[in-house]
Each structure stands twice: as C-alpha cells, then as structure tokens.
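Re: your question about histidine kinase

S., sorry for the slow reply, the queue was backed up all week. Below is exactly what I fed in.
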Amino acid sequence: MDKDIRYKEMIGYLKESKEFIFINIVTMVFISAFLVSEDLPIIDIFLIIVVWICLLFGFFIINYLKRQRYHKKIEKMLDELDKKYLITDIIEFSQSMEDDFYYHIMRICNKAMLDEIYQEKRERLEYKEYIEQWIHDIKNPLATVKLICDNNRSEATTKILIETSRINNYIEQALYYARSANVEKDYLIREVLLSEIISKVLVKNKQFLIENGTHILMNDCNNSVLTDEKWLEFIVMQIINNAVQYKSNYILELKICSIESNNGVKLIISDNGIGILESDIPRIFDKGYTGRNGRKNNSSTGLGLYLCKKLCDKLSVDISIESEIGRGTKVTLLFQRGNILRMQA
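Result:
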C-alpha cells in the first residue's frame, strides 16, 4: 500500500513538473543541434547530454525528497494536534512560493470558518438562554393556575390540574433538552436517598397518576447513591410518565425497588403496560424515535427516553430496558461504584 502511495505521489510530482521537463528537453535538442552544426564530436555532445540528464535527475530526486520530508513533518504535526484546525498556526513556511500562497489561502479560509462557527455558537447560546428564560417565565402562570384549581376543587379544575401536570412535563423536557449539552456545568453530585427522589416525583405527578388509575408498589428503595438530585428526579419522572402513556387497558401497576449488587445500586421501575416490540428496543433511546407504540399515540415525541439516556451517560449511570409485548416493561438504572471518578475522567 505504501509503495502504491509513493508511486502515485511521484507520478503526481512529475506531472506538476512537466513544463520544466519539456523546456529542458527542447533546450537539449536545440543545444545539440547547435553543437552538431559547430562540428563538435558526437561523443562530446553525448557526454554533455548525459551530464545534463544526470543533473536534472538529481535535481528532481533532491527536490522530491525535500518535499516528502516537509509533507511528513506536517502530517506528524497534524497527528499530534488535538484540534486539527489549529494546524495553520503552527505550520512552518515552505521555501516554495506556490506552497506559501496555498498556506495563505488556507489561513484565510480557516479564519472564515472559525468566525462562522463562533457566530453559530453565539446564536445557539442566545437561543438556549431565551428558551431557558421562557421556560422559567411560563412556570409562573402555570403555578397560578394550579393554585386557583387547588382552591376551587371541582371535576373541571381536577382535569385542568391533570393537563397542567402534562404541560409541566413537556416544559421540563424542553428545559433539560436545552441544558443536556452542558450537564457537567449544572450538576451537583452528592449522596441522595432513592426513596426521597421517587416520593418527590410521585407527589408532583399525583393528579396525573390518580386520573390514570395507577397503582404504585414501592419496596426497599432505601439505598443511597452519589448523583445529581434534580437530574435523577427528571429521569425517574420521564420513565414513570412513559409507563403511564403506554399503559394497557388494565389497571396500571408500577413496581419500584432498589437492590444492591456487586457492581453498585440498581433502581428498577417496572410496569404491566403494553410492552415494546423487541425490534424497537435497540433504537428506543434514539432521538425522535417512537416505534410502533409511538405511531399509535399522537402525543409521543421520542424525546423522553432520549433525554434519559443522554443524562444517564453524562452522570455515568447505566440505563437498560427489558420488555415483552403484552407483559410490560422494566427499566433498570445502575449506579456503579466509583461513578464520581468516571464522571471526572
């Protein structure tokens, strides 16, 4: 393979030098003709041509090897560079005017690209900040609606509370999606009790769970884990909301427990819902993927489990799903021992 590459490079180099070679050949012919007309011995003319060709050949070899060393030096610098786009800042000037011209063009193009990326990042940051601010602002009127409904209980206000809970869930999705790219800047790792996290989620979604006839079975959730409280709360909320969204015609049973294993602590949330097709499970965490169940449910966005997976990866929590059609789904969160070291790595 290396021989083929060298051969192609040499052919390319000769093609680049074809004008120079042509001029030398024409010059040789004219000088030879002139020397013949001057009655110079043929053997002398032949020796002159041979010396000329040897010098020309030597020039090409030296120049080719010099270019090869220069190219290999650049390739080595590029391989050792983490941020490849900075190559123009450390590359050395060549002795070739043509190379220097291309280097100058490359620097201009590179600067234009970096300016474009900076502008794009700035616009995305501004949009993200606007979305986060909008989400915080919209929570105030929703909190007011909830307060009014709590103080004026009726069948209508109960339904409003349920829909408000759903809106809050979508708002939380939008907020965490906006922040998911920079989780490490927003988390606070500390020891949290799993039972407290689950209780908070159940209280927040109380009306929604009651309306959907959800039966909660929570056993042995007294294990503590090292993680970020609010991010874990969001992950658990998405898993529970998914279970409610894809419940079967029977009473929904949610079983929540935690167990300590050799690898760490497992939080297991299982339901008796409609289940997930085996062919859908490998793609269940893909962004926007809803599967067969999602296509039947117009409210599916395909973002809930995607965000769960993304946040779990950032927090070094392993998430896995087992499911069977008609039998239900089991989601397992594994908090491995030493995950703080994994997050810092």
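The beta strands are 189-193, 214-219, 224-228, 252-260, 264-271, 317-324, 328-336. The longest strand covers residues 252-260.

Happy to talk it through on Thursday.
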